[in-house]
Specification:
This protein is mostly helical. Helix content is 77%, strand content 0%.
Length: 295
């Protein structure tokens, strides 16, 4: 009798869902909704907005799955990722997955086009393309600038939401997209400092691997300072006091944690900075949407 336990349907479902990085996808979807909310002149209804949100989620999911498909070899070398489905063999590393990933991306872009407009659909595509191809395939294993350029993926989701509301978007959504671009490096570099050994073992030139923890931590603080300053600019271009309160509260907390990291680089302070970045982005996006509804 075979004593090897076969995965249950629930376990297999979790493996498949984990493949698509849905938690990240939901965050990307929220950024698109925030871009929509801060852009005046919307000509689409609730159904069209729902389709756009799902299109952004699905396109992000397709890019996340592609990332794991391409990186299954280095995922095996890192403690943080060695339990992923392709790395463990829980799911077969088959080209059939590429067909499914391509199909999901095509459906998401087509849905965004039909529900909103071609420009919004283009931004939906570019968000997935930058993460899957520019970041994962081209830059990640070549340069520490990988996450800087790859950060444009989040910016494109903001622009997708804004373009759906009004293709002739004003300065407010553009500034919000810039905030997302500046947020990604200190967010990810904080995590990279905490997991430096993983990236070094896999040969991935993340910033702390290239310049060391101490210098990387100082760069995280400087980039966080730039992020916080830029995150206040929307207040001067139409955002209201609720947005300002959210940006200030989250920004000051993130800056404090980044300062702690720069003063004493360690896994503990790096993870503190990482979680502070998540809180900062959450407060900023929620405040932007509530502010747009109220004012």
């Amino acid at each position: 009798m075979d004593t090897m336990a076969q995965p249950t349907a629930m376990q297999l479902t979790r493996k498949v869902l984990g493949l698509f990085k849905l938690r990240i996808g939901f965050v990307i979807m929220i950024t698109a909704l925030a871009g929509f909310a801060v852009t005046p002149g919307s000509a689409i209804g609730g159904m069209e907005l729902t389709v756009l949100a799902l299109a952004v989620l699905i396109s992000s999911a397709s890019a996340g799955a592609f990332n794991q498909y391409v990186e299954y070899d280095i995922d095996r070398l890192m403690v943080r990722t060695r339990g992923r489905a392709f790395a463990t063999g829980a799911l077969p590393h088959s080209p059939a997955w590429l067909a499914l990933i391509g199909f999901l991306l095509a459906v998401s872009v087509a849905a965004a086009w039909l529900a909103t407009n071609p420009l919004a659909a283009l931004y939906v595509f570019l968000g997935a393309f930058f993460y899957a191809v520019i970041y994962t395939v081209w830059l990640k294993r070549r340069t520490w600038l990988n996450i800087v350029v790859g950060g444009l993926a989040g910016s494109f989701s903001v622009l997708a939401g804004a373009a759906a509301a009004n293709p002739a978007m004003g300065p407010l959504p553009l500034l919000l997209a810039l905030v997302l671009f500046l947020w990604t490096p200190p967010h990810f570099w904080s995590l990279a400092i905490a997991n430096k050994a993983d990236y070094a073992a896999a040969g991935v030139p993340m910033l702390p691997v290239v310049v060391g923890d101490a210098r990387a931590a100082k760069i995280v603080f400087a980039s966080t300072l730039a992020l916080v300053v830029v995150s206040l600019l929307p207040f001067f271009f139409g955002a209201g006091p609720i947005y300002l309160a959210g940006a200030l509260t989250g920004g000051i907390f993130f800056l404090f944690k980044a300062w702690q990291l720069a003063a004493s680089p360690s896994r503990k302070t790096a993870m503190g900075s990482f979680f502070a970045s998540l809180l900062q982005l959450t407060l900023l996006l929620m405040a932007a949407m509530v502010d747009a509804l109220v004012f």
